[in-house]
Specification:
Layout lengths: L7 E2 L14 E6 L6 H10 L4 E6 L6 H6 L4 E5 L11 H11 L3 E7 L2 E5 L7 H10 L4 E9 L24 E3 L3 E6 L2 E6 H7 L6 E8 L24 E6 L5 H11 L3 H14 L12 E3 L3 H6 L5
Parallel strand pairs: 2-3, 2-5, 3-4, 7-12
Antiparallel strand pairs: 1-4, 5-11, 6-12, 7-11, 8-13, 9-10
Helix pairs in contact: 6-7
Length: 302
């Protein structure tokens, strides 16, 4: 897989040079302006020192907002997300540009990483602990968050650093299936399976030590070398898609056709939500989010 996707860094002076003390974060975004104040604040608190972003031709002010952030390197590309192998080529090109042989956070702009002691332990310190255990990645399932009650009142506009889990504050505590495959851990189930019948992959590796042997040639959910993916689950990614405007968001994703199978999973979701007048995602298996210790006690991480 050749790294020949045209990209341009919008930062004056070009890409930042990272020092050994830096903790960089690579993320992709498209029309996620409302998440950015809380997203940046969350990861700055965890010790991220440099944000490296590819904006996939946003039209909602995302690019302008990021360009004003002194700790963000903003990249753009004439190539769309699907053409970049659903962003994998962009990510690999950024790893190559900023340097191998170091730890990176690798997420999307609607994913918020949590781990044990994240109130006092920085990402740099967490990486050192993992390394001392002989672990070169952090396994973390995506946990779909949603509001309780009628969705129409669940507004999240990103006008402040208010965290999205203050609005979408529930998750499914049951209904998951963890398995071992040839390429690592797999997790399916949760809200999207219960509500929409989709079997999307929920396991990710959002903190990685990237060296010459690493690749995203197969999937961001199963980075190579695969042997590094058989590790304890030590984190959770709170994942946000469902607020009062979720119907419009799903419609736009379907129309854009950039996700796997021309957004096949989102088409299934759209078919159902368009047939419902009153929508609530809450169920008997739903729990109100109370923090990291709660997630550990429920078995989502060690």
């Amino acid at each position: 897989m050749a790294l020949d996707i045209e990209m341009r860094c919008e930062r004056k002076g070009g890409p930042s040079k990272l020092s050994a003390s830096d903790m960089p974060l690579i993320f992709l975004t498209r029309n996620d302006r409302r998440y950015l104040p809380s997203f940046l604040a969350h990861y700055r608190t965890l010790g991220v020192t440099r944000f490296i972003c590819v904006d996939d031709q946003s039209s909602d002010g995302t690019s302008e907002f990021l360009a004003d952030q002194p700790d963000v390197d903003l990249w753009t590309s004439p190539v769309r997300y699907k053409e970049a192998r659903r962003g994998r080529l962009w990510r690999m090109q950024l790893f190559a540009t900023y340097g191998k042989g170091r730890w990176y956070v690798n997420v999307d702009s609607d994913e918020y990483l949590l781990f044990r002691d994240c109130g006092t332990l920085s990402l740099k310190e967490l990486a050192a602990r993992l390394e001392s255990n002989g672990e070169w990645r952090l396994a973390a399932p995506m946990l779909d968050m949603f509001p309780a009650g009628n969705m129409s009142g669940a507004t999240f506009d990103g006008t402040s650093e208010r965290m999205p889990w203050e609005v979408a504050d529930h998750f499914d505590a049951e209904g998951y299936r963890l398995s071992l495959g040839k390429r690592g851990l797999h997790l399916r189930g949760g809200l999207r399976h219960r509500k929409f019948g989709t079997a999307v992959e929920l396991m990710k590796y959002p903190l990685v030590y990237w060296d010459e042997s690493c690749s995203l040639v197969t999937s961001i959910h199963s980075p190579a070398p695969f042997v590094r993916n058989f590790i304890p689950i030590r984190g959770v990614l709170l994942h946000f898609k469902f607020f009062s405007d979720y119907r419009r968001q799903i419609q736009e994703t379907v129309q854009d056709e950039q996700h796997f199978g021309n957004a096949a999973a989102y088409r299934e979701m759209l078919e159902q939500v368009e047939s419902e007048t009153y929508v609530t995602f809450h169920d008997d298996v739903s729990r109100r989010f109370e923090g990291v210790d709660q997630l550990a006690s429920l078995g989502f991480m060690q």
